[in-house]
Amino acid sequence: MSAIKTVHDAEYATANLGERIVAALKDAGIPPEKWTPEILGPADQIHGGGLQQTQVHAALVSITSDMHLLDIGCGIGGPARYFATEFGCRVTGIDLTDEYIDAASLLTQKIGLSDRVAFDCGDATALPYDDASFDMAWALNVTMNIEDRAGFYAGVHRVLKPGGRFCISEIGQGPGGEPYYPLTWAADPAYSFLLPPEDMRTLLESSGFRVVEWIDETARRKASTDGRPAETAPVETPLTIEITRGADYPDRRKNSGRSAKEGRLTNVMLVAERI
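The structure corresponding to this sequence follows.
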């Protein structure tokens, strides 16, 4: 096992995760045919902003049923299943955590999406796919754990078709100093590789991408909620983020929020085009 996978598993691995999610839904009397993105969302949309943020980001691009999407750092498959359900496209997810891939495959099979959504256990910096395989790629709050950002961007460029879109949500280093640990993606700085937003953009463009949307999420969240979907009534679900990320997740989230508020973290949502 590689050193990076050992650290990654220590951060993210959760034993019997899929079975525990299935059991929680069964105990609540919710059958698989009613496992909507909203029901699963608190547990399977594990990036910042959850399902609503996935919807906001997806509204920036055009996804059609004939597309094949790649979800990098897919977790337990929430965004991948949302894309397939909402747009009828095919999606391949890849993540370094075996337990996440097992849970993603189980939940996808349970709701009958295995013909359109598949998952691989693998390294985002060594994507095991042929050149020009995908119409679109997603990386939602993934890059904070990737040290070789230029190599990562180059790999995504390779597997995208010309003109393909790369949709990224990246947390970066703010001007206010080091963030407070533990954070939602790392217990300490050893597994956190933050860059200032301007460095992210420079590396992305030097890797063969043209930025077509660049949204400072930190500033937008402070200013207003304009452009976000209207709030809907809460959906009854027994699932929470803690079932996936552990009991200490609320404390980690508080540190992330405090760090963002003090300018120690930035959050950029973007869409880039492969050129």
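Residues 225-230 have pLDDT under 50 and may be disordered.
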